Amino acid sequence: MSAITETKLEFAKLGSRIGAEIRGFDLSGELSEDTVAQIRAALNEHKALVFREANIDSDEAQVTFASHFGPLTKAHPTVASVEGEENVLPVDSENGSANNWHTDVTFVVNPPQASTLRSIDLPAYGGETLIASSAGAYADLPEELRNFADTLWAIHTNGYDYSVPKNLEHKNAEERRQEFTRLTFETAHPVVRVHPLTGERGLFIGGFAQRLRIVGLSNTESKDIIRLLQAYVTRPENVVRVNWEPNQLVLFDNRITQHYAPDNYDGQPRKLNRVTIAGDIPVGVDGQQSQAIKGDSTTYSPTVPAPAPAAAPAAAVA
């Protein structure tokens, strides 16, 4: 067994509201409780962490790293995993580009608390991942709009394949859509979610909230309101653009971010592998939990209580 890593982590900020990176920190060995607590504290602060030269060169190593932060989900509720790796989802350009803002798997009642992405095959240019702070978006709202958003609930569903716009469909788009929607999930989530560790409020919307509507409103009203709120999420000051390198891993907080993979690499191969960490049931500002409407997610992911706040001080920022 590898020696337990003991070190003080120093993350360099990538933006004022979201994102920090560290280079050359070896994630492949056993990590001490103190190191895991430092990473958790940095994730709470920065919401997206980029580990460059991370020495994660296998699915097994990625699974081991992600497991430090809680039990894992299966790869996906409906989409097949990497062969022989039930926790690993291939994010492969051959299956389409996820060029729509979304938060992972919010159509279930217990979405992942965090996601990890590992670089496998990268294009010569393009292929970045954009990650947005929904906490920054909420903070930007005028007080009257914040108060309104606090009262809203939205239905999230997998009733369509968000990753394949009709005008950019790949040759296997219909097969992919059938796989993605082979089981139907619908969940009512608060539009404003309270982060269980930091107490921050964030807009919990994105791609899977756009199929149906805000509870109590018409489709037209719902689309207009979601479009208005979503515009705050994607303001440039709330977004970090993560450039990919070989031997890189990204960890982001699924509770309080959205992400987007622009299709800007001219059909070159792009493949990342994703492992997600099981999460709690979202809670709104009134203390009410999300409610499942259709679909049973228990075979996809356990529901876990929010982990205790990290005891260690926040990691230093370079």
Strand order of the largest sheet: 4-14-5-12-3-2-1-16
Euclidean distance between termini CA atoms = 31 Å
Structural class: alpha+beta
Number of helices: 6
CATH topology: Double-stranded beta-helix
Number of domains: 1
SSE ordering: EEHEHEEEHHEHEEEHEEEEEE
Morphology call:
globular
CATH class, named Alpha Beta
Chain-averaged pLDDT: 89
Please outline the major beta sheet: 8 strands, mixed
Segments where pLDDT lies below 50 for 5+ residues? 309-314
Domain TauD/TfdA-like: 11-276
Family: Belongs to the TfdA dioxygenase family.
Organism: Arthrobacter cavernae
Cofactor: Fe(2+)
Could you describe the 3D structure shown?
The chain is α+β, with helices and mostly antiparallel strands and 318 residues long. It has one domain (10-299): 4-Layer Sandwich (Double-stranded beta-helix), CATH 3.60.130.10. The protein has six helices and 16 strands. It has helices at 33-46, 59-67, 134-140, 143-149, 173-180, 219-233, and strands at 10-13, 20-23, 48-52, 89-92, 114-121, 129-133, 153-157, 186-190, 192-194, 201-203, 239-242, 248-253, 257-260, 271-277, 291-294, 316-317. The strands form four sheets. Strands 4-14-5-12-3-2-1-16 form an eight-stranded mixed sheet, with helices on one face. The chain is globular, with a radius of gyration of 19 Å. It starts with 9 loop residues before the first strand and ends with a strand.
